[in-house]
């Protein structure tokens, strides 16, 4: 059983994916963390983010490891933990520039497909249902209004003690969604056979429960 979750920023993908993985005993794979890790390394090395060849070469020489930890997924770049670093505002606002390049996506998709070979996974991202696992047993495209998504991120920042401005957050989210949905290579788009779930008015638990029902319908355990 493979569950593919796609959708725009702050739709609730990773929160829902983590809970699904726990309930089902599946492995959770956050593909956004992989693009973030490459972006973090590229910024640190001063690579021009418009230079596809250089970014692709950098990725080919980069080891990205995802590991399940007690507090969620841990991320390692060339053996060093970068779980916190890849969530910085700088990385968040640059990652779509890196993710638009065909060479980068080709290598990322190859690595992601290797991670799903054994099944029993929940994978979230932007192109999981369309490109990474086009034959996934369950595909969900999660959406929510931009206002609600900005509000959720704002709340999250408050809890973490990070100062942020609600209007600015919404602008940044919309800008990233625009870049992700309009790029030439595997843009953010609902797969034809994905179920669209508008979570604007839904709490996390009801989203998780609905997806579990879909899994059960497809004969998966819960
Ligand atoms: O958690 P959040 O929704 O803020 O973003 P993320 O899932 O960490 O993804 C960060 C960025 O990586 C996205 O805005 C996309 O530009 C890119 N991404 C992608 O292109 N394809 C994926 N499968 C996953 C992420
Ligand atoms: O992974 P993605 O960027 O799609 O979103 P997320 O990081 O899972 O969710 C963003 C924030 O919205 C988190 O703080 C969640 O707890 C919250 N959330 C919510 O309040 N209601 C939902 N139905 C889903 C997420």
From TrEMBL:
Domain (Cytidylate kinase): residue spans on this chain: 3-216
E.C. numbers: 2.7.4.25
Keyword field contains ATP-binding: yes
Enzyme class: transferase
Compartments reported by the entry: Cytoplasm
Catalytic activity reported: dCMP + ATP = dCDP + ADP; CMP + ATP = CDP + ADP
GO molecular function list: kinase activity
Alphabetized UniProt keyword annotations: ATP-binding, Coiled coil, Cytoplasm, Kinase, Nucleotide-binding, Transferase
Binding site for ATP: 7-15
Coiled-coil regions, chain positions: 152-179
Top-level taxon: Bacteria
InterPro entries from the UniProt entry: Cytidylate_kin, Cytidylate_kinase_dom, P-loop_NTPase
Family annotation (NCBIfam families): cmk (TIGR00017)
Similarity-based family: Belongs to the cytidylate kinase family. Type 1 subfamily.
Name of the featured protein: Cytidylate kinase
Source organism per UniProt: Jeotgalibacillus marinus
């Amino acid at each position: 059983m493979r569950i593919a979750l796609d959708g725009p920023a702050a739709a609730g993908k990773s929160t829902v994916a983590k809970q699904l993985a726990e309930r089902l005993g599946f492995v959770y794979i956050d593909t956004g963390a992989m693009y973030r890790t490459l972006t973090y390394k590229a910024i640190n090395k001063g690579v021009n983010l418009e230079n596809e060849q250089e970014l692709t070469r950098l990725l080919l020489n980069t080891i990205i490891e995802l590991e399940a930890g007690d507090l969620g997924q841990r991320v390692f770049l060339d053996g060093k933990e970068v779980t916190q670093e890849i969530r910085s505002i700088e990385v968040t606002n640059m990652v779509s520039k890196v993710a638009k390049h065909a060479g980068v996506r080709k290598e990322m998709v190859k690595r992601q497909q290797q991670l799903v070979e054994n099944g029993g996974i929940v994978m979230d991202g932007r192109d999981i249902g369309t490109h990474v696992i086009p034959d996934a047993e369950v595909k969900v495209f999660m959406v929510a209004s931009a206002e609600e998504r900005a509000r959720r991120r704002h709340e999250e920042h408050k809890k973490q003690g990070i100062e942020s401005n609600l209007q600015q957050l919404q602008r940044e989210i919309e800008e990233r969604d625009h870049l992700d949905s309009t790029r030439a290579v595997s843009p953010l788009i609902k797969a034809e056979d994905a179920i669209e779930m508008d979570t604007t008015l839904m709490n996390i638990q009801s989203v998780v429960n609905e997806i579990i029902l879909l899994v059960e319908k497809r004969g998966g355990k819960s």
